[in-house]
Amino acid sequence: MSGLVALESFLLLVLIALLPALLYLSWVRTTEFGQKEGWGVVLRCFAYGAFFATIVAAVVEAALVAGGTGLAVAVPAPEFVFLNGNTTAGQFFLILVAAPFIEEALKASGVYAYRAQIRRIADGAVLGASVGLGFGFFETFLYGLGAYATGGIVAGIALIALRSISSVLLHGSSTAVFGYGYAAERLTGRGRAASTHYLGAVALHGAFNAVVSLGSFAAVLGLTGNVADALSALGLALGIFLAFLAIEYVRRIIVQSSHPGALAAHPKFRPPPIRPATASVRPPARR
Q1: Which of these, 216, 198, 181, lies nearest to 96 by C-alpha position?
Q2: According to the model, what pLDDT value does residue 228 have?
Q3: Are the beta carbons of 120 and 258 closer than 8 angstroms?
Q4: Which of 4, 37, 78, 229 has its CA 20 to 30 A from that of 193?
Q5: Distance (Å, rounded) from C-alpha 270 to C-alpha 278?
Q6: Averaged confidence pLDDT in the chain
Q7: Separation in Å, CA 183 to CA 44, 103, 250, 256, 271
Q8: What is the pLDDT of residue 274?
């Protein structure tokens, strides 16, 4: 009986984590004017973010923490303290710097993997959002599973619900920003648009992690009681606000870049040359 209850709880957590991400995915996809990305490619991007980018990011980050901790212990110099995952500085370095760079790079690889589907700039943003929302779904499910293991089903559901209105949206938005830049560079020849938008995605991700960590900053500063609780609540509210602000920005750039004539109006857009027909026509037979 306990095994059946555990299975039901597991499936419930999957469903609660998956549904908001899919609703966001549909919301972003329907923002696009004209011909929209097919559900097939959108869901494949979603799965890429969920089951490739998330897992590889976890492995890379775990290896970085293990390797950095070992190096910091072997070479106990002050300049290496941020590599030690057992220290406060090391934990903040992972959250604010390493994780945004690693995770955004792996999510960006999903946009690159499906680059053949990009026909206009808006497509890059939609595919990026798809990858990011997949990443956010699976990461949120894993966090919820951990909360369920330690605090029960209510704790798991509460954490998933909280992350669904913050982290999931953030992951979708940040990768959409990269996808927009990558598509702009690919279709219009804008030099370095992909790299600058990747850095923008990293900055957005890092800023979000910073504001939701206000409670942790308070603990480091020795603040306790009502002050610490107020900072934690403020950080959570700012994180949710930033996540919704980011997804609204993404929806706006999708609307603007999918509007009829948006690509052709770009000053650097060069349409492909019109090739003459190659079909051969047989001359009439001589009589």
Answers
A1: 216
A2: 87
A3: yes
A4: 37
A5: 23
A6: 89
A7: 18, 19, 14, 14, 15
A8: 44
How much is the average pLDDT of 82-94? 84
Rounded to an integer, what distance in angstroms lies between the CA atom of residue 147 and that of residue 255? 38
Cα dist from 222 to 33, 188, 216, 257, whole Å? 51, 52, 10, 48
| Contact yes or no for 272/237 (Cβ under 8 A) | no
**pLDDT tens readout for residues 200-255:** 999 999 999 999 999 888 888 888 888 889 999 999 999 999 999 999 999 999 99
Q: Could you state, in order of their start, the residue ranges of all structural domains in the chain?
A: 11-258
Spatial CB neighbours of 164, under 8 Å, sequence gap ≥ 6: 16, 17, 20, 21, 140
Amino acid letter, residue 282: R
Q: How far apart are CA 88 and CA 5, in angstroms?
A: 38
Position 232: which residue type?
A: S
- The pTM of the full predicted model, rounded to 2 decimals, is 0.88
Q: Which residues contact 287 (CB under 8 A, 6 or more apart)?
A: none
C-alpha–C-alpha distance, residues 287 and 283, integer Å: 12
Cα(142)–Cα(138) distance, integer angstroms? 6
Spatial separation of the C-alpha atoms in residues 139 and 152, rounded to whole Å: 18
Any idea of the CA torsion for 9, 11, 16, 22, to the nearest 10 degrees?
170
